[in-house]
């Protein structure tokens, strides 16, 4: 039934299709990309070529095909986004469920901490935490140096779990008072059992919504970081969507519009698509039907 | 409200630790002043509270901070307060203008959409808000730069809105029109974010209210439509919007920082990014205190306004 | 008979739903005289509330309404908004089932009464309006009215809130007060109190009251005349005593029989379910469930007609009542 409601949101369905195509193109990247990620299109002159048959989206400052780099870049960003969102969601679910269910001191503390973090300007917190975690040596051994993709995944997960936790906590609070939970308690179910078998399955809807917004958040955050120069710096020309968008900064004044337009367009498209899906998921799993339409 | 001061201290303490770990104030100092004498180094460490014990060091720093004995910046040994003050003033100008415009327009637009749900204008508003939320502010900023500066001048031969700074270089004195022209683009970028968020909140909240029973009672009283809409509908719809609003300040500030950076507007955002880039501890700590304090203040304002608007939760 | 204050003729209300048109009210005639207590009985879905919501003009725009509603001689159906607004709260007011959600939670109780007063008596100064509001609260039986006028709805109990709602409704001395299930959401003990308040108001101000309910006990207690509705139409009308004594329509008889009474060991419900108003039956609405129905009942839609001192819409009323026909 929820599936049917989801499918009635045309924008969301279109987004699913679009994303599926994109993911397919990205997975099959050795075939769909026309050049290597660090490969020059041809011998010089090859820099800053406008879109043409040789390079569909034009070339960048050292002659690499923007189209191919975009495919590889999207792959990196999608992976970063997905992984960090997954970690955020798992951690957030656990913390949120425990906080909502147990209440009390733990819940209070969690709420205050997340409140404060979420209220702080995002970029500032991101940069400061990035540097702080990056300077703790034993941590960097585990999760990688602060310019690596792995590090970014964990950094973004560190911020992402809080939003998920709040959503899950809210849902658990609402469910906690329902009769079927009381009934479970009355037959002696342990708290852990209740959480596992009753609360979490009934929260699948909001959790999926939280997951989709976490993915969007992560991808946007990664690109914001990269835009300001703090993104993943991999060697041998590897790139991410954020890095490509970051190059847009300089491109504006010089008039090489393709360097700005294509990556930005891709980023916006991906955000829109995931947002549509998240929104439609939310509508599909929201029990309140009278939304005035 | 009692929480405010201890929270402020706690958070600034955490920030202190984070910055010490993250930006390594000592290294940064040595990097910028490689030929500093031993004395100078010791003095720097003392004034900034950089002793090896973090807790003691924090209180050292705190003492200097509250007695206005602020250390000078690492680079160029500049006084912190005048720069911070200028940045603060600029950001407040930009921020208040953008927030004010954004909130007013956002609320009106949300109302506009909620009155005819499912209609074409509702769809238009929803789509617009969606776009506003999905497009990161720096992209809008770059887009505006492209359109209003580069291409506009190509097409029309002059720049409609300048893309950097508060005044053109070398300008002195206060000129409102010029200042507004420079603020136009960054304000628009931030305002778009604000409008997108608030219109969605308002629409959803107002829809909920319009479907409630007491709206039916209001209508059965025979009062005018406008009274019904504002005294009953909007008044109640504002309650959840306000609560979320004040907590959203952080997001607005975030958008401000990005906008300022791209348009080279000398506000708190640019101040932070450049100070952070050089690891300038003396510049960073006061900035942090200001931001944390304002975040807490806005939280407080949120609580107070919420109680003011909704009598059900007032504490007796 | 005293003058007619509200006269509803052939009222029809159809809603456009995603599943098709829903005929909630299918030709209802109701007369309300000055100062009388008219009970309107029916189950959920009978159209009793919708009828009066339509009369008040409180239905959403997509509802299609035809017929005539004369309030004090003024036609309400299709009247311009200004006329409707004058009427609502001035000549005719309505109170609803759930008092908590009926009151605006962020306005003080006294202010909500003042709003009603000033909407129709604009010459009242704020001070006078406030004074009148306190008087009204007193009339409906709220203790310490002067202080409580400054309180918010959530500070009142359910019964008190309903009294406030009544105070708002009678503020401008309306000719007709429509009470839509006013006691359903309240405790039994409080129900009696609220009914008493309504009665008192009626006697004091001479207001005609339309009491919509599904509870026959309430009707028996306070109503002067009764109007029974089923499947969007009237099925029986008459004075309360006559109706309870010798009901003619099988539905009314079923209702009365289903009340618990002494000596009976089991309850006798009416079998079956109310019809689906998306596809109403072609004949008498009750026929599918009626143990007396014949083929004629299933195919022809009966109209109200005189039957002794009652009016009935049953084609076989004579056979059932007079001849004592067996089902």
Q: How many E-type strands of chain A?
A: 0
**Topology as H/E string of chain A?**
HHHHHHHHHHHHHH
Q: Give unreliable regions of chain B as ranges.
A: none
**Oligomerization category of the chains in this entry:** heterotrimer
- Global outline of chain B: globular
Mean pLDDT of chain B: 79
Helix content of chain B: over 70%
Helix tally of chain B?
Answer: 13
Considering residues with a beta carbon less than 8 A from a beta carbon on another chain, report the largest interface and each chain's count. A-B, 44 and 47 residues
- The overall pLDDT average of chain A reads 79
Task: Tell me the overall shape of chain A.
Answer: elongated
The whole-angstrom Rg of chain B is 24 Å
By DSSP (H or I, 4+ residues per run), the number of helices of chain A equals 14
Largest pleated sheet of chain B: none
**Sheet/helix structural class of chain A:** mainly alpha
Strand content of chain A: under 5%
Largest sheet properties of chain A: none
What is the beta-strand fraction of chain B? under 5%
Topology:
The complex is a heterotrimer of chains A (293), B (316) and C (327).
Chain A: H1 2-7, H2 10-27, H3 29-32, H4 66-102, H5 104-119, H6 122-135, H7 137-143, H8 149-176, H9 179-186, H10 191-202, H11 204-227, H12 241-246, H13 248-254, H14 257-285
Helix pairs in contact in A: 2-4, 2-14, 4-5, 4-8, 4-11, 4-14, 5-8, 6-8, 8-11, 9-10, 11-14, 13-14
Chain B: H1 4-23, H2 25-32, H3 38-47, H4 54-66, H5 80-115, H6 120-134, H7 137-156, H8 176-210, H9 213-220, H10 225-247, H11 249-262, H12 268-278, H13 281-309
Chain C: E1 4-17, E2 20-33, E3 37-41, H1 48-56, E4 64-71, E5 74-75, H2 81-87, E6 92-95, H3 99-102, H4 109-120, H5 126-139, H6 145-148, H7 158-170, E7 176-180, H8 188-205, E8 208-213, H9 216-222, E9 225-230, E10 233-239, H10 240-245, H11 250-258, H12 295-299, E11 305-307, E12 310-312, H13 317-322
Parallel strand pairs in C: 3-8, 3-9, 6-7, 7-8
Antiparallel strand pairs in C: 1-2, 1-4, 4-5, 9-10, 10-12, 11-12
